[in-house]
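Issue: ligand-bound run for adenosine-5'-triphosphate - logging full I/O for the record.

Environment: standard queue, default settings, no custom constraints.

Inputs:
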Amino acid sequence: MSQDKGLLIVYTGSGKGKTTCALGTAFRAVGQGLRVLMVQFIKGSWHYGELDAAKMLGDDKMEILPMGRGFVKVGGAETDPEDVRMCEEAWTFALAQIQSRKYDLVVLDEINYVISYHMLDPGKVVAALAARPERVHVICTGRNAHPALVEAADLVTEMREVKHPYTKGILAQRGIDY
Ligand code: ATP
Ligand code: MG
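Outputs:
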């Protein structure tokens, strides 16, 4: 059995920690000399600390590329064709990077969200990830991971909310949430 087996990893669930778990894995990977790319399918409204931290590590070690738009309206007729187009573009780009073998770990941040809102076809994503170069690790994050992706994955962790400060009215904290 080969030592270097690229894993398909899914971090899902409604509790906090999916993106931070992917970033923690990325940090570990960089320490092992692995090259990491994170493609963000949904661009958040904050300036995330990880964007600057990745720059401190250097582009040759870790790159984070925000591809989506800040705010996405979804659901039936309300889905903006421009958002669908941008998701398709982000996916095409991310897949090309996975296939390029330039990276050892590629994080598809919030791709589960994009799939669950029908902005990307789950069958297409799962088939392409299954056919990726053998040594490339891929992490998919976001709530409501599609059953087909869960089925295809080697490792799936569901974050379960036990407590979140938001329910006490405490807003997002710098360095913890962004
Ligand atoms: P993080 O980026 O902090 O790891 P996440 O990736 O698990 O969070 P997302 O669904 O991407 O969660 O949501 C992103 C934002 O929503 C973050 O600011 C996060 O703190 C916040 N958030 C995550 N989970 C919860 C929750 N259960 N209740 C309220 N806010 C949450
Ligand atoms: Mg997230």
